[in-house]
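Continuing the batch. This is chain 6 of the set; chains 1 through 5 are on the previous pages. Same settings as before, nothing changed between runs. Recording input and output for traceability.
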Amino acid sequence: MDYKTTILKEKTVVGLTAHTSNTSPEMGKVIGSLWERFFAEGIFQNIANKSGNTTIGLYSNYSNHYQDYDITIGCAVNAAENLPNGTTVKTIPAGNYAEFVLTVEHGDYITPVANLWEKLWQMPLERTFTGDFEEYYADENGTCKEIHIFIAIR
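Output for chain 6:
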């Protein structure tokens, strides 16, 4: 699987957060409900000071041999001010990342992202587990067309 190594600056993310586990049968439901709430409750529209027009799925605070983690659905911001109710502030640390790019066809991004994550867990990357994230790029109609997945590495 092809990827490039990139160095990223620290990013601040504002969004909705939940805790889940790769071993939980409820993992998909937990993550899916955050995505649904993020848009249905107008969180995306109400986040001030966005640093771009992408949406981020951030995995952080790994524990239990990296099986448990926080998932945050949000946006990168220039300043975490005037936060919508119920949102949290998270930091994507500066550092080295393996960057994978997925092109989305026909609006189905869930399956390709899940398939990529299955492959990522098997790859011999020197992961740091300091914060991995997906960045979703949409067209002018709001349809996701491209996803960049960043895995923190040494």
